[in-house]
Specification:
The structure is a single chain. This protein is an all-alpha fold. It has 2 domains: about 110 residues, RNA polymerase sigma factor, region 2, helix turn helix motif (Rna Polymerase Sigma Factor, Chain: A), CATH 1.10.1740.10; about 60 residues, Arc Repressor Mutant, subunit A (Orthogonal Bundle), CATH 1.10.10. It is built from 9 helices and no strands.
């Protein structure tokens, strides 16, 4: 690959949702082909994930998390050809982020042995982040009517009656719609193959 494309203004953005289109493998293929717009999309798609690992799992201060963020995507750009399975981009970025966070912690506490540098419960925290981002991806892939009722019911804690009144639908329809939408999201999540072996 050529030099890292200039990405003025492209930084982690905690407000950006993960977009399922195009799929990860297609996006990585476009990046490998030198598509700079695809690279920017890849950074946007995974910026929250990388930053969340740095801040939530490793509890790095903001300035260290931002340095890790920049280094992860610089290395990912340089080493993208080493990724064996294009669909495995998220676990690959997760592992790269983990290694760079550990390096950052070691640099701050040189006298501590390596096993003491990694925070307790890190595997569980990263697993929870993986699950949360997978659910976000499934929700983003759902039709608009599903996103609306799922958001209202689970995020805003609205009742069937409140949702029904807002959408001009009977409460029973809201219940069945939530059930169908959750089934669709479950099917989407089950269709995602585990890619850890490709990292």
């Amino acid at each position: 690959m050529g030099p890292l494309p200039r990405s003025a203004g492209v930084r982690f953005d905690t407000r950006t949702a993960i977009s399922p289109e195009p799929n990860d493998a297609a996006l990585v293929a476009r990046c490998r082909a030198g598509d700079h717009a695809a690279w920017h999309e890849l950074v946007e798609r995974f910026s929250r994930y990388v930053y969340a690992i740095s801040v939530q799992a490793f509890r790095l201060p903001h300035h260290d998390a931002e340095d890790v963020f920049q280094e992860v995507f610089a290395r990912a750009y340089q080493q993208l050809d080493k990724l064996r399975d294009d669909e495995a981009i998220r676990p690959w970025l997760g592992q790269l982020t983990r290694r760079l966070c550990i390096d950052r912690l070691r640099a701050g506490a040189r006298e501590a042995p390596a096993e003491e540098v990694e925070p307790a419960g890190i595997d569980e925290t990263i697993s929870e982040l993986d699950e949360a981002f997978a659910v976000r991806e499934a929700l983003a892939a759902a039709p608009e009517h599903c996103r609306e009722v799922i958001d209202r019911f689970f995020c805003r804690d609205e009742s069937y009656a409140t949702i029904g009144a807002a959408l001009d639908l009977p409460s029973g329809t809201i219940a069945s719609r939530i059930s169908r939408c959750l089934a669709g999201m479950r099917k989407f999540l089950e269709g995602k193959k585990p890619a850890a072996s490709a990292v």
